[in-house]
Amino acid sequence: MLNKRMLLLLGIIMSMVLVLAACGPDRESSDDSESNDTEDTEESENSEETSDDSGEESSDGISAEKPEKLVVWADEEKSVGIEDAIAAFEEEHGIEIEVSELEMATKQKEQLRLDGPAGTGPDVLTLPHDQIGQMAKEGLVDPISVDDETLGIYTDSSVQAVTFEGETYGIPKATETPVLIYNKEHMEEAPESMEELYEMSQEFNGDGKYAFLALFDNYYFAHSILAGYGGYVFEENDGTMDPMSLGLNTEGAIEGGEYIQKWYEEGLFPEGIIGESGGSTKTGLMEDGQVAATMDGPWAVQGLRDAGIDYGAAPMPKLPNGEYPQTFVGVKSWNVSGYSENKEWATEFIKFIANKENSKARFEAVGEIPPVQSLIEDPVIADDPVSKAVAIQSERGVPMPNIPEMGHVWEPMAGALQLIATGEQTPEEALNEAVDTIKTNIETNQ
Amino acid sequence: MEGNEVKTNHRKVALYLSIFPGAGQFYNKQYIKGFFFLILGASFLAVFYDLLNIGYWGLITLGTIPMEDHSIFLMVQGIIALLVTVVGLGIYALNLLDAYRNGKRRDEGTEIQSVSKQYHNLVDSGFPYLMITPGFLLLIFVVIFPILFVILLSFTNYSANNSPPANLVDWVGFKNYIELFQLDIWRNTFLNVFSWTIVWTFLATTLQIAVGIFLAVLVNQKELRFKKTIRTIFILPWAVPAFVSILVFAGMFNNTFGAINTDILAFLGMDPIPWLTDPFWTKFALIMIQSWLGFPFIFVMVTGVLQSIPNDLFEAATIDGASMWQKFKQITFPIVMYATAPIMITQYTFNFNNFNVIFLFNGGGPAVPGQNAGGTDILISWIYKLTLQQSQYGKAAAITMILSLIVITVAIWQFRRTKAFQEEDMM
Question: DSSP per residue over A7-19, as a string?
Fold first, then answer.
């Protein structure tokens, strides 16, 4: 008896609670008092801060109220490159810039997801361009309004890289792409074509020495070959990519796969550089001076320098079909947070720190190559062989697709390339299967 | 007594009055307590009204306006609201129960206990409960909360394509679970990963336990000299952080440059083995490595147990003419197992979720055609890839749920069968 009654009572209470639940937030009267506590306080702070300088708004041609400070997240160990530009900006506009360093590839994204809604996020952050699509979809970064004149100073591929669904999501900051890095002890001059490397491999290889090594089981590197033969990741129409139209098992891509398989099949690439720890193994061989040439990014140079290797660098040599390999170009960019209260000023700031002078200063300080067209010819870059090679190769390459669906491409492609490398499957089988997998994964994730 | 019960019906009146917290206590003339419940009820509603309101609304709708409503935060708030409600209902039930009990006392003509008497009762007999309460409340939020979060997440379509705040997450029911078995590629992957996880758990763990016990018994032989040195050497694999050992192994097993192929197998005149590119050999290597990493713990533990076995047992056995094997089978092994079985079982659950060795050795590779995970991925490393590399949170949560169910079932079943948990003497 009692138990039944108790249950009945509990039932009544539960249903009361559920009725209560149907109320939801009372948006009309107190929109931000309930659900957006943090925003509320932030707004009030801002209005306090900005009340002082309300008189000088119009002098900068920006209608938005001038904030007291902008928070900038710079890449780890790279903020030294923008110190002077920040000082100049602070002096010119009277806005304090607070810079903190945060690892760019993953930390900034993860941190923004938490800090943004909490109101402690930055106004300006910096991202690799291939994250832009995902973050734009999540509303973490906002499109910026910049005129063609501002964007005109950057290379086309870098502007394309920061464009997502037809809108500009950032200002290019730096560019990088794999190039041919060679050991001058074994190779006096960079070869003109991959065929030369191939022929050299057949004589030079043996006794733990290799004429040319590349991580072609890693899709980041292998794309250059597939694309060089005519493959592509997603079909592109008017700046928008179609995630369901893949070009990774086209005739050209398969031909590229066959070319890749040739290197492994004939033992020119050892099995030991396939898979998870292949990269470190390859780097080790290169730094031991066992390898004449390798395909790697500018980030590999520091290790070679430390190992005392006399290295040179050149753009990637031509493929047997006469085309240049189309390497994946990565562009780092300055972006405006979707949570920023001062988007116009944040935009103004990133335009300023990435302009030609400041880009050049940044290059001199941290060595990351700015995708500013006129700087490629500038002696600062042209005199440094690695920078020059990267700059030239960047123009020949294609930016990594920045749509979120790209996240589904890496794993299956790595798998397919590994199967090609170990000879488990023919390139055609492997690539067809990879495309199927990618499509299923994209579909189930819609 | 019986006549009394018919005439008065205080217990029911008190119970119904108590629907409004405290009223029943007032009716029972327990004014202080009634006041206490009233205040508690009122403040509960006042303090938690917003939380409960937004929480339940959010939990049901998961937000309605993108950018303004953050589905995942709403879900978190909803779970907190749920937990707060449970605690609130608990106190409410206490209120009802108290009114009913005291009403019953009045019906039966027994004296109602005063507040100070009840307080003394509580302190005297309920002291352990009083001490546990804060910890228990903490436990609700630290343990129950994340579990509820994963459970709920597995019923949503939360993934990279569908990430707040720009998008709203929706409830999709069992879609994640169904797709796991419906779509060819997911089913293949799930079955392959699952079966390898089971094989891996049993082979690696059994091997490490067997080796551990074998060596411990061997080293424990009286005739053996330099015991300390030998034991020290056997503990070494445990002393070096597994993280480092596994990475070193990854280098040693390298197909072309690793010491195993170039030095050891070459010295024995064997062909190099594709340790890192052939799924079978990668699995073989992983099981060997885990046995090597895992046996010292068992070795140390069993060595400890062996010290405590009384010598007369063996002496008696020797007099009866028992062989070495008989002594081991009848005396040593049962005693060792009795003392250590629970820990042995945790070894199985540990390896079931042994992310380190799988991930660090070959990243779950090598690739195998027609599936979403690598050839040596176990469930936990696959979940890692799904969440951190492919951002398929909903699906990963569903797999996590399946994985937890397996571990929980096995653990409960095994622990219940283990004598060590039955609080009784061995002999």
Answer: HHHHHHHHHHHHH
